[in-house]
Design a protein that fits this description.
This protein is of the alpha+beta class and 487 residues long. The chain folds into 2 domains: 244 residues, Beta Barrel (Lipocalin), CATH 2.40.128.20; 159 residues, Orthogonal Bundle (Recoverin, domain 1), CATH 1.10.238.10. The strands form 2 sheets. It has a 10-stranded antiparallel barrel. Strands 11-12 form a two-stranded antiparallel sheet. α1 packs across α14, α9 packs across α12 and α9 packs across α14. 32% of the residues are buried. Bound molecules: 2-acetamido-2-deoxy-beta-D-glucopyranose (4 copies). The site of one 2-acetamido-2-deoxy-beta-D-glucopyranose has 3 residues, from α4. The site of one 2-acetamido-2-deoxy-beta-D-glucopyranose has 12 residues, from β2, β3, α5 and α6.
Length: 487
């Protein structure tokens, strides 16, 4: 009878949706829903953030590449040299643009991507250089001569994986450098990249309604890929540029030699060169984003930015019919109680009785059966939970017990009690564990209840007046099985 009313109370408390500001218990316990992280990698803090570990196809993207490209204007005609306007920085290039050579260095470092590229343009043809341009137009960039010297620009891109952990890329910064100085562009929203299949990497940079640029890499094997790029101007509804290229893998020595060779072939002036290997790309803090820029400042590296996918507060399993929960608790508690008995014998029972006694002194399960309301139970839980952390820590319970609520308890008895309470061994007791434990204490409750029933009126009054006093149980020593009478 008394056990049932206790269970009903617990069940009522547990299923009450507005059951107070108790901190959640952990997911995936017997009474709570499974953790999202077991089925959804976004919630799994242990799932790697690394590109390569999320999708092995990134492995073929890494490394050093030579790229030979053909550029077309939007109308499909090979790209022509453009008179340069210094204020537009790297946009209009007074060089042969229909064909270009580039050298890429793709580095993946865990959740971070750094790509560095050298883009080479041949000197412009004489048909272009013969023309006269009025300022602000000019037919050369830097200190060279039109038709004599070629041009190189260096371009770095920085990106990260995402909190979705799908192996996708978010590029957040591009830095262009060369004779014109440095030009930093942050993408907001970031540019995207994802694998469509194991050999196709697709990317896009868009500003809704302004422009849309798509980029694709198709890897034929580990050493060869085709790249295409198309830029659509959404304001004028026209295609602005097309670029098709072939990428060929090179090793370090070949790659460095090929860059040097292109400097010679394109007659690039010494002062316009970007050194190779360009350590500055990775070392110079003016190129390389600062840690705070990676971590939420511009980029959002999942390795250092808190994910929005956090395990929600644990929910009780569904089917919140009181009867169902009672049954569940009872089914769960009976074997558990049996197990404790089997494992720990009378020790646990004795300690339980003491513990229930301590609680009963405060929350007064007598003289009215069922007077143990969920508010009272919560009050007691919160009373033990000194720091209001939502869980009872070992030290908090010890403090509560040392106040004399339960009389003296030895350290070894206390440890037995603690391990009986801390079901999941987490080092703290949440409310579900608290309730679960109490629901296995029916016998102890009955004992305390029956004892309270036998008290005389004066005893009860005295008992009540001493309820919150730390000196209330002078003779109550938890070594005996007896229910002490405080009279
Ligand atoms: C450009 O000028 C050079 C000499 O200044 C001349 O030889 C050449 O034919 C010219 N080319 C064109 C396309 O006008
Ligand atoms: C990379 O992702 C794509 C798209 O989800 C998938 O088809 C491909 O199999 C993945 N590659 C590897 C090596 O896992
Ligand atoms: C691809 O080539 C790179 C560089 O030569 C090498 O490190 C990597 O192991 C190769 N991967 C495969 C799958 O052959
Ligand atoms: C490629 O980039 C990495 C890191 O960003 C750098 O350490 C390495 O020296 C570069 N390799 C060459 C050949 O420039």
């Amino acid at each position: 009878m008394n056990l049932l009313s206790l269970l009903a109370t617990i069940a009522a408390f547990v299923v009450l949706p507005n059951a107070h500001a108790l901190k959640p218990s952990k997911c995936g316990l017997l009474l709570t829903q499974p953790c999202l992280s077991t089925t959804d990698k976004r919630y799994d803090a242990n799932f790697p953030n690394s590109f390569v570990m999320q999708n092995l196809s990134w492995k073929q993207y890494e490394g050093l590449w030579k790229v030979t490209a053909t550029n077309f204007e939007g109308d499909g005609i090979p790209a022509q040299p453009q008179p340069h306007v210094p204020a537009l920085n790297y946009q209009l290039l007074p060089y042969t643009r229909s064909e270009a050579v580039a050298f890429y260095n793709h580095t993946l470092d865990g959740s971070r991507m750094m790509t560095y590229g050298y883009y080479f343009y041949r000197p412009a043809p004489s048909s272009f250089c013969n023309q006269t341009f009025e300022p602000p137009f000019q037919n050369v960039i830097g200190s060279g001569f039109c038709g004599v010297n070629g041009f190189v620009s260096g371009k770095a891109h920085y990106g990260t994986t995402t909190n979705e952990k799908e192996g996708d890329l978010e590029l957040f910064r591009s830095v262009e450098s060369g004779a014109l100085g440095r030009d930093v562009i942050d993408f907001d929203p970031p540019a995207k990249g994802s694998w469509i299949d194991s050999s196709t990497l697709w990317g896009s940079t868009t500003i809704d309604g302004v422009f849309s640029q798509t980029h694709s890499y198709v890897f034929l094997n580990n050493d060869t890929a085709f790249v295409s790029l198309s830029v659509i101007d959404l304001i004028t509804s026209s295609r602005q540029a097309n670029y098709v290229a072939k990428m060929t893998r090179m090793d370090d020595t070949e790659w460095i030699a090929a860059v040097e060779q292109t400097y010679n072939d394109y007659n690039i002036l010494e002062e316009d060169k970007i050194p190779v290997p360009f350590e500055d790309f990775s070392m110079d803090p003016e190129w390389y984003p600062a840690e705070k820029e990676w971590c939420g400042g511009v980029g959002s590296d999942p390795a250092c930015v808190e994910s929005p996918f956090q395990e929600p507060d644990a929910k009780l399993k569904t089917g919140p019919l009181v009867g169902f929960v009672i049954l569940g608790l009872a089914l769960f508690c009976v074997p558990m109680y049996g197990l404790y008995r089997y494992q720990l014998g009378q020790q646990v029972r004795r300690i339980k009785t003491c513990f229930i006694q301590g609680i009963a002194k405060n929350i007064n399960i007598a003289p009215t059966p069922g007077a143990l309301t969920h508010e009272k139970l919560l009050e007691e839980f919160q009373h033990m939970d000194r720091d209001n952390g939502g869980t009872i820590e070992k030290a908090e319970l010890k403090q509560w017990m040392d106040e004399g609520k339960v009389g003296k308890i030895s350290d070894s008895d206390f440890n037995v009690l603690w391990s009986a309470l801390d079901i999941d061994g987490s080092g703290s007791i949440d409310f579900v564990e608290f309730c679960t434990f109490l629901s296995g204490c029916g016998e102890a409750f009955d004992e305390v209840y029956n004892h309270q029933q036998t008290m005389s009126k004066e005893q009860k009054l005295k008992f009540a007046s001493q309820r919150f006093s730390t000196r209330s149980l002078p003779n109550n020593v938890c070594i005996s099985n007896d229910i002490e009478d405080n009279a």
